[in-house]
Amino acid sequence: MLYSNLKRPCIVFLLLVWCTTAFAQQKNKTTISGYVKQSANGESIIGASVFLKENGVGVATNNYGFYSLSVTPGNYTVVFQYLGFKSVERKINVTTATTININLESDGKQIDEVVVSSAGIKKNVTSMEMGVNKLEMKSIQKMPALMGEVDIVRSIQLLPGISTVGEGSSGFNVRGGGVDQNLILLDESPVYNSSHLFGFFSVFDPDAVKDVKLIKGGIPAMYGGRLSSILDVRMKEGNVNNFSTSGGIGTVSTRLLAEAPIVKGKGSFVIAARRSYADLFLKLSSDENLNKNTAYFYDLSGKANYTINENNRLYLSGYFGKDKFGFNDRFGMDWGNGTGTLRWNHTFNPSLFVNFTGVYSNYDYSLGIPTGTNAFDWTSRIINQTLKGDFTYYISASNKLSFGANATFYRFKPGEAKKAEGNTSFNNIALATQNGREYAAYIDNEQKITDNLSAQYGLRLSAFDYVSGQDNFTVYEYEGINGQRKDPVNPKSYNKGDAIKTYINLEPRVSLRYILNDASSIKASYNRTTQYLHLISNTTAATPLDVWQPTTNNIKPELADQLALGYFRNFKNDMFEFSVEGFYKKMQNQIDYIDGAELFLNKNLESELLFGNARAYGLEFYLKKNTGKLNGWISYTLSKSERQIDGINNNEYYPSKYDKTHNLSIVGIYDMSKRWNFSAIFTYSTGVSTTFPNGRYEVDGIVVPHNTTNTRNNYRIPSYNRLDLSATLYTRHKPGSKFSSNWVFSIYNIYFHKNPYTIYFQPNEDNPQVTEAKRLAIIGSAIPSVTYNFNFR
């Protein structure tokens, strides 16, 4: 029945693609193709504009700097542009397939003026993309940062449609979705926990990152696996011309990066390391309760690339990071990510480009009490391995076809607790290992239909197998009343490798763009997304103890359908960009929890879960200034995020824990001179929703506040607002010097505002029969910092 339902839309879609391809195929066509790179270091440029001056027809370079234009033989002027670099023109006579590789030189003046980069300054209007933001690392490094730590995730939280639950949360929420509904990719490898230091910083070393792109709407068919967004982070490839090094010493950590050619002009490598040193200061304390504590994180990133010949390139990249915390030998915990990516780029011909990728990703976390009669060690882990191939066929200058497939194997170890030496009372607990297999195939066509109208339409077919991870693996069904803990019934046993349940989903995607005039356009998009992995957590922010769970026989895949409509306009000779986007997102099979849910080491975890629907809708406004000494942006989001879960709030919609009605960010960067740069960030948002108790009960003489009704998230904590300031001083050096450096002075939360992270309740000290509310502020004062950065080339 399922396959018969899929048959018709698949046939219709393939016929559409075939007709499009057939229409686009014309005789007497040839190609202009090649790579666009930076002249200083040989780094490929993602999203550079390549177009013909005679008719304006063009393309943007892909993630590896490759472009291809289909043209009729003749004389052309090819223009290569990227914001922050000098434009290059090449006059050529095309008779056969022609290769043009271009190295663009930086335009120092323009770089100082640019805040957010794109493939040409008019991309806001002309691109098919909507709900997409691309941040330039040079701009991120100029903005004020908490304790001087430049942070990618904190920077994207300043964009429209992006929010966070508060201080100490490096995760982010997109258009009313949860932190687990964002696919975070580092060189195409998924990162399952992007936070350091309990969420204050992210795992991305800013020195090692080349490109950051966030997609929250109009998601292309090549992406899947999450409902809300794609955060695509690309690492630097390394200087292919010369050895260089850079780094910094800050309040929290020290960074160092080195890059050099493997074979000059053909290959290069880059290695970056970062480590915090709070633990080193703790050891200097005379207080034994402090000097035995451990608190630090570290990162190690690396990448190498090699050009075999004009048609073949290899890339190998990896990341390893860890957080470690120990409290006076009484308690300890750590967590970390490890990723590895191997890629092979191949051009079959000037019109057909392919990237084959192998990915490994591991996320593990643990906690324990090292000594004593209650000593134990608890560990958990998720591992995935992926193989995929992504093809791009440049059919013509107005038609680009993308298609590919991938397969991913998952291993989930949700928890194992073993008693440590000296333990006399703890019983070992091991939750069953679970496996999963995810497959996907996609096809996507980007087509210019008329001079004003373009469309991008695609289809993704995904499937997931829930697989037994060990022999004698038992699964249950659950019976009971919604809103209460359910009982396991009908046990079934499986051997290792047995497929327990299979799901198949179609995910159509379509985007339209209509150009009104040279300065404005209207865009619309629809996309369905499917998510087979679920983060089990009853906190608002990601924590090291959260457990990733696969789709099972009881936990269905999460589904989302999103519609978006936007108006985009440039004005004042492209000095300003403006956009307003409206969106509506409907989500199915969303997970929530019964009151008092027990999630830690629970063999019947699914008995604690509730399922239902969610919806989010809103308007996003974005005004950005591109050029001049003063630049920056203003973003404002008006939105609503709600859930409807059987067993909660009388089965009616209630605010989700990510719901924020208003979210405002103002970013300003002022280049006063060649030596001084100043920047400021102001943020304001509605407080997150929470549940207040309306009753209490007593246990052994202790009064416990309790919500006696079935309501959820019926109150809000106070609103959030903060102002940060920063100044950068570029030190003087002799003309022609290979060494450069700067000092960054910043103040986070300059007016000492105590933003509440949460509200908690406790009995009044004088009258225990009275319950009073207390606010918890993670940061309640201004935090100054100084960072020294250097670069040697």
Task: Describe the overall structure.
The protein is mainly beta and 793 residues long. It folds into 2 domains: 2-108, Sandwich (Immunoglobulin-like), CATH 2.60.40; 132-792, Maltoporin, Chain A (Beta Barrel), CATH 2.40.170.20. Helices cover 7% and strands 56% of the residues. The strands form 11 sheets. The chain has a 22-stranded antiparallel β-barrel. Strand 49 (758-763) and strand 50 form a beta hairpin. It is globular. 43% of the residues are buried. The model is unreliable at 109-120 (pLDDT under 50).
Set out the fold topology.
Blueprint: H1 2-24, E1 30-38, E2 49-52, E3 58-60, E4 66-71, E5 74-81, E6 88-94, E7 98-99, E8 102-104, H2 108-113, H3 123-126, E9 132-135, H4 137-140, H5 152-156, E10 162-163, E11 173-174, E12 182-186, E13 189-190, E14 195-196, E15 201-202, E16 209-215, E17 229-235, E18 244-249, E19 253-263, E20 267-276, H6 278-283, H7 288-291, E21 294-309, E22 312-327, E23 331-349, E24 352-369, E25 376-396, E26 399-419, E27 429-430, E28 434-448, E29 453-468, E30 473-479, E31 487-494, E32 499-517, E33 520-531, E34 533-536, E35 547-550, E36 558-571, E37 576-593, E38 609-625, E39 630-645, E40 654-655, E41 662-671, E42 676-685, E43 689-690, E44 695-699, E45 702-706, E46 715-716, E47 720-730, E48 739-748, E49 758-763, E50 771-776, E51 783-792
Parallel strand pairs: 1-7, 1-8, 12-17
Antiparallel strand pairs: 1-4, 2-3, 2-5, 5-6, 9-16, 10-11, 12-13, 14-15, 16-17, 18-19, 18-51, 19-20, 20-21, 21-22, 22-23, 23-24, 24-25, 25-26, 26-27, 26-28, 28-29, 29-32, 30-31, 32-33, 33-36, 34-35, 36-37, 37-38, 38-39, 39-40, 39-41, 41-42, 42-47, 43-46, 44-45, 47-48, 48-51, 49-50
